[in-house]
Amino acid sequence: MSANLYELLASRFPADRDAPCFILADGSEINYGALEAAAARVAARLVNGGVQPGDRVALQAEKSPEAIMIYLGALMAGAVFLPLNAAYTKSEVDYFLADAEPKVFVSDPPAFVRETNGTVGLAQAVAREAGDLASLIYTSGTTGRSKGAMLSHGNLAENALALHAAWGFSSKDVLLHALPVFHVHGLFVALHCALLAGAPMIWLPKFTDAEVLAGLRRATVMMGVPTFYTRLLGNPDFTRESAANMRVFISGSAPLLPSTFVEFEQRTGQRILERYGMSEAVIITSNPLEGERVPGSVGFPLPRVDLRIGGGEETGVIQIRGPSVFSAYWRMPEKTAEEFTPDGFFITGDVGRIDAGGRVWISGRAKDLIISGGYNVYPKEVELVLDELPGIGESAVIGLPHPDFGEGVAAICTGDGDEAAIIAAAHQQLAGFKTPKRVIFVPDLPRNAMGKVQKNVLRQAYEGLFKA
Ligand code: AMP
Q: Ligand 1, from 350, 375, 377, 405: best to mutate by most atoms within 8 Å of Cβ?
């Protein structure tokens, strides 16, 4: 067996290939045998079409089982999988395509897979070494400077095996999968755990209360962003009985409010397991499966993750090193060098501390990243769009507490204009999750002595904007 991640995953598929892999919302199923056969045909189509090991295969589409067949087929072919958020606009996608130069761009996964019918599947995965690139994950950022985190077969295999063990996955599990698959959470964290267990997934295109409530009756594990949990709690039909079949609820991608943790336990008798991760390292820390899960803490570093706090104070920027941590940003040697310490630790940009018991606590982000509904929004990118719109002088984009999305995007601007028209114009250029939900006009933006806009002052002043 080579270090190709596909070989590891396929070696864990259930012996009975008739066992279900995807359970779809309409009740139909796709079994492991069909997944394996489709991946082999996709791999053959890629190789026959001239895709060489290391070539990028990009995919931008709505979530579907076929998207996973293409992901696995790309791995098998030795290609580098590049998933793109389905909400990205054409100009956003143009940047990624110019930067990553993929050989293949898939926009209709079901059609792509259908067209392989009749193709003889690849008999064996293309051999890869642990350090070879498996996937390129762009962290959302200012258009023109979004960074592609380079994840190798070894990085992903290491993380998948660690999570499979840490969270006690077995073939008896049924994973409720309602996350998008263009992000590490749905594509690697959730999917790899299920595939390594040979377990089925209840495969939902997105989170809807009715489908999730129905799925929970049969599922044993759910992975979600905090918004999933606040939505469930907002639904009176979600009761202790709804969660009775569940072994564990896992949360990540954004901070889980301790109040959500407490309310969830009161409602269901279950304590949400919070973990912390990022595109550059997949999962870094996790609360324990057995043992105390402390609300507000993201738990302990995974077994082979070295985690320390930079800066010499108790609280500082979290730095990490280990076999699951990415090696570099795609074609950005300078940026890469800036974000690693001389002894090889990646500087995460998240501010946190480690308590006496070894638990990690995250207190915020070093930069002004906004996380809305689990997705990253870099204020700068939104500001650049707003500043070009007629009527706007300058803008400061901030994240404010939002009951549904964790944080909601708000723009504080100088100048004058019609709020709804500005929001509509911004949405022409920005995905919905990046578009401001409110635009507020002020005479001047507050600035410090160095001329920098004081976003903390704005955040305080507008703290209640999205509160009911
Ligand atoms: P991404 O690269 O999109 O996965 O975003 C990674 C960022 O999400 C991290 O750097 C953290 O700032 C944030 N994040 C992920 N999980 C958590 C968590 N459990 N608590 C707080 N922040 C988190």
A: 350
The whole-number pLDDT of residue 71 equals 99
| CA atoms of 219 and 213, how far apart (whole Å) | 10
What residues does 147 pair with on adjacent strands? none
Domain boundary among 360, 394, 413: 360
- CB-hemisphere CA count at 13 Å for 156? 36
Residue 466 belongs to a domain: no
Q: Are residues 125 and 157 in the same domain?
A: yes
Give the pLDDT score at 364.
67
Alpha-carbon distance values, 443 to 214, 218, 414 (Å) = 51, 56, 6
Output the residue whose Cα is nearest ligand 1's atom 6.
278
Domain count, the chain: 2
In contact, 12 and 28? CB cutoff 8 Å: no
* Burial of 228 from C-beta contacts in 10 A (0-12 / 13-18 / 19+): buried
- Residues with CB under 6 Å of ligand 1 are 139, 184, 252-255, 274, 276-279, 298, 348, 350, 362, 365, 371, 376
Give, as one character, the DSSP assignment of residue 271.
-
The strand pairing partners of 317, in sequence order, are 351
- Identify the pLDDT of residue 232: 97
Domain interval for residue 445: 369-461
> What integer pLDDT is reported at residue 468 of this predicted model?
65
Q: What residues contact 231, with CB distance under 8 A and at least 6 apart?
A: 207, 209, 404
Could you tell me if 221 and 262 lie in one domain?
A: yes
Atom number, ligand 1, closest to the C-alpha of residue 185: 4
Which parts of the chain register pLDDT below 50? Answer: 141-144, 449-450
Pair 278, 180 in one domain: yes
What is the 263 CA–ligand 1 centroid distance (Å)? 22
Helix extents (H) in 178-329: 184, 191-197, 209-216, 226-233, 258-268
Q: What pLDDT score was predicted for residue 140?
A: 60
| Pair (270, 335) in one structural domain | yes
Please tell me the distance from the alpha carbon of residue 281 to that of residue 152, in angstroms, as a whole number: 11
Nearest protein Cα to ligand 1, atom 7:
278
Task: Say yes or no: 242 and 310 in one domain.
Answer: yes
Domain co-membership, 344 together with 385: no
Model's pTM, two decimal places?
0.85
